[in-house]
Write a structure and sequence with these properties.
Elements (H helix, E strand, L loop, with lengths): L6 H15 L10 H17 L4 H13 L11 H15 L4 H13 L9 H10 L8 H15 L5 H14 L5 H36 L5 H55 L10 H22 L10 H5 L16 H12 L2 H50 L4
Helix pairs in contact: 1-3, 2-3, 2-6, 3-5, 3-6, 4-5, 5-6, 8-9, 10-11, 10-14, 11-14
GO molecular function, one term: nucleotide binding
GO cellular component, one term: plasma membrane
Keywords: Antiviral defense, Cell membrane, Membrane, Nucleotide-binding, Transmembrane, Transmembrane helix
């Protein structure tokens, strides 16, 4: 193995820094500051990925040289930078194999990144290290200003859309990048989405205040917003109703289980002792009746009620059938049900009316469930308390001998 010489990295730094410092002021992102950040990230990633000393030195050299092509052109700067680097790399005499490795690293940073070696993967991840950094938005804004100066004005909203698209498609190549940097990038992605929503809301607010006549596209968007809101309302209301129904069923199951256990104990243990303890007959009857009544009301709360299961074409034409509830179509043929559903989907008023009726009748069922449950819990509460008092009185005034 060829021995490494740290002076190669130092000499590369001395070669690259003057070139990068000569870049014009409008290069607000691809400048000496960005390169130093990439070098720092490459050093960290090289250690974390357990690169050997030669590989780590190759990455550090490539990191210092990967953006020197901007001195001549912003277009295809990777290839230009590689050509500029070759004479220098030959001069520091690191060997042709390592020269090629450094060149491959530089070329791998061209978007979309395409590394073919461990060292190239490290440099690619280091070049886009800022996606996972807490300085992401600051770096992104500097890059936007640079693009504005070199290409043309880009609104913050469009830029944020592009940044989000890049982050969604991008993936880190190294294990450290996948395990450590990716979760940090996801956090920045969530923040970017929130920022985009704020920018869109701000732009919409400015458009409303301007008093300009909205375009057809803007009008279409405005008409869609209420529909999305209505659909969200229906979805949330239905979910809430189903959750409340599940809670009611759970409460009823608890009441049924508790009371059946109590009745079972009374039948299996207490009734056989009543001949010996006649003073306990009235408390036992009270407790048994209370538990039985509470159980009946709890069962009634969960007792299913299925309707006829059929609808007619006349019901569809008059928009009276609710096709969203299985009880109204479970006896229908598939062909008739499909026809009815298509008629409903083609008529938004019919669709929303069906959804409204579905929620209404869900509410009616819930009202009945909770009313029966209230009877069940009330009977159990007062009946159980009265029975305990009766047992206490019987034990006190008619003690068992």
């Amino acid at each position: 193995m060829m021995t490494t010489d740290i002076s190669s990295v130092v000499r590369t730094q001395e070669f690259a820094e003057p070139l990068l410092q000569s870049l014009p002021d409008h290069m607000e992102y691809h400048n000496i500051t960005h390169t130093r950040e990439v070098v720092e990230a490459a050093e960290l990633l090289g250690k974390q990925c357990n690169l050997n000393p030669v590989e780590r030195e190759n990455v550090m050299i490539a990191a210092w040289l990967h953006d020197i092509g901007y001195v001549k052109s912003c277009q295809n700067h990777e290839a230009i930078g590689a050509e500029m680097a070759k004479p220098f790399l030959d001069e520091i005499a690191i060997g042709q194999e390592r020269v090629q490795a450094v060149i491959d690293c530089i070329m791998a940073t061209k978007m979309p990144q395409n590394p073919h070696s461990r060292t190239a993967e490290v440099l690619c991840d280091a070049d886009l290290f800022h996606l996972s950094s807490d300085r992401f938005f600051e770096s992104s804004e500097r890059l936007r200003q640079e693009m504005k100066n070199t290409v043309g004005k880009i609104s913050k909203r469009k830029w944020m859309q592009g940044s989000i698209a890049l982050m969604e498609k991008h993936h880190y190549f190294t294990e450290y990048g996948k395990e450590v940097l990716t979760p940090l990038k996801e956090k920045n992605l969530k923040k970017a989405r929130r920022k985009l929503a704020e920018l869109e809301e701000e732009e919409n607010g400015k458009a409303d205040k301007s008093g300009d006549k909205p375009t057809l596209e803007e009008e279409t968007k405005k008409t869609k917003k209420p529909e999305r809101g209505i659909e969200t309302m229906f979805r949330m209301t239905s979910q809430n109703h189903f959750q409340l129904s599940a809670m009611a069923d759970n409460k009823a199951n608890i009441m049924i289980s508790v009371n059946t256990i109590i009745v079972s104990l009374i039948i299996s243990i207490l009734i056989r002792k009543l001949e010996e303890w006649p003073q306990l007959v009235i408390p036992t009857v009270m407790l048994t009746a209370s538990c039985l009544a509470a159980t009946i009301f709890a069962i009634l709360a969960t007792r299913p009620n299925v309707s006829g299961g059929r609808f007619s074409k006349e019901d569809i034409h008059q928009k009276q059938a609710n096709l969203l509830f299985f009880g109204n179509f479970h006896k229908m043929d598939l062909v008739d049900y499909e026809w009815g559903m298509k008629e409903m989907m083609n008529d938004s008023d019919f669709l929303y009316s069906s959804m409204t009726r579905d929620i209404y009748y869900l509410g009616k069922v819930l009202g009945k469930k909770y009313r029966l449950l209230r009877f069940s819990y009330t009977i159990f509460m007062f009946g159980f308390a009265a029975s305990v008092v009766a047992f206490g009185i019987a034990a006190y005034y008619f003690p068992v001998k």
